[in-house]
Amino acid sequence: MPHGVDVIAVERDVEDPGMLYFLAFHYLPLAGVSIAFMDYSPFLGLSGSTWTGLDNFAKLFNDPEFVSTVRNTLIISFLQIAFAFPAPILLALLLNSLLSERMKRTVQTVVYLPHFLSWAVREPWPICSSSWGSAVSRDGERRDVQDSADLTGDLEGRGVGDDHLLRRHSPIPTQLYESAAVDGAGSLRRIWHITLPGILPVMVLLLILKLGDVLSVGFEQILLQQPSVGAEAAQVLDTFVYFRGVLGGDWGIGAAAGLLKGAIGTLMIVAANRMARRAGSEGLF
Amino acid sequence: MTSSHRPAWVEPPNRVVTTIKGVLIGSILLVMIYPLAYVILNSFASPDATTTAGLIPSE
Predict the structure, then answer these.
(1) Could A97 and B21 be called an inter-chain contact, meaning their C-beta atoms sit closer than 8 Å?
(2) Do A113 and B5 touch (CB under 8 A)?
(3) Which of B11, B39, B54 sits opposite A187 (nearest CB)?
(4) Distance separating the N- and C-terminal Cα atoms of chain A
(5) Among the four residues A76, A197, A236, A280, which has the most C-beta atoms within 10 Å?
(6) So what's the pLDDT on residue A165?
(7) Which of B5, B11, B33 faces A110 most closely, judged by CB atoms?
(8) pTM to 2 decimals?
(9) Of A98, A83, A146, which Cα lies nearest the Cα of B21?
(10) Predicted ipTM?
(11) Distance of CA A171 to the CA centre of its chain
C-alpha cells in the first residue's frame, strides 16, 4: 500500500456518489408510495390530497382489466424465465467448449451488439418479421407479442448474464478438468461434474435476481409493440400503471398497482433467497 | 495432427459435435446481427422503402 494513502478516505470518496445516487433516485422517491393510499391530485400535491385508505387497492382488484393485465404479465414472465434464464448458461457452456479464443471473443462481442440499440429502433423488427410470415389471426396475435417479448428479452439478457457466468466460470482450475480427463471423464461428464457445480452459485444468484423482477417484463418493449396487437394481448403491469396513472390521471390506482408489483417482487426475492440458503447455496444476502 | 489451442488431455474434435456447435454458433450470430443490419440499412432508407422493403431497402 502506498505510504500516506488514507484507505478509508479513498473508499468513502468512491462510495459517497453511489450512496447519493441510491438516496436521490431510489429511496427519496419512495415517499411517492403514499399516493397509493390517497385520492391524489398533482395540483394539490401530497400534503393537499385526501387519504382514502385501501380504496385504490379495492378498485384495482375489482377492475376487469387488471385481471387480464396480471395474466399477461405472468405469461410473459414465465416465458422469459423458461427461455431467457437458461440461455446465458447454455451459451456460456457452448463458448467454454470452444478452443479458439478468437471465435470465443467474436461471439461474445456480437452477443453484446443489441445492447447498443434502443428498443425504439429494435421494435420494428419483430413486427416486420411477423408480417413477412403468414397473416396473423386475432388469436395468433396474442402469441406473437408474447413470443416476441420472450425472444427479444432473451436476446437482451443473454449477453449480460453470459458475461457474469463466464467471469465466475473462468476461475474453475484447469487442473480439475485435466484430472477428470485423466480419470476417463468425457466432455459431457466434465461439464456435469465440474463446470455446472462451479457456476451453480452464479446461476442461483441470477435466478434470485430474476425472480425479484418477475412482474417487470419490459415496459419500453411492450409499450412499443402494443399498438400492433392491442392492449388485450399486451397490457402488462408496467404499461397498466403508465396508461391508468400517468395518461389516465388515475394516480392512486396506478401507484397501487406499482406498489403491489414491488411488494410481490420483494417477497419473491426473500423467498427465493431463503430457499437458496436452505438448499446450501450462499444466496444473495 | 494436434491443434495448438488444444491441451493434450482434451479429446480430438468429433465431426458431429463440431458441426452441431457450428450450426448453433452460426444461428446465434445470425439472430444477433440480423436486427442490427436491419436497423442500420433502414436508417439510410426513405420512409416508403422502410415500410415496404425487407432487409435491404431499394431506395
Answers:
(1) yes
(2) no
(3) B11
(4) 30
(5) A236
(6) 55
(7) B33
(8) 0.70
(9) A98
(10) 0.76
(11) 26
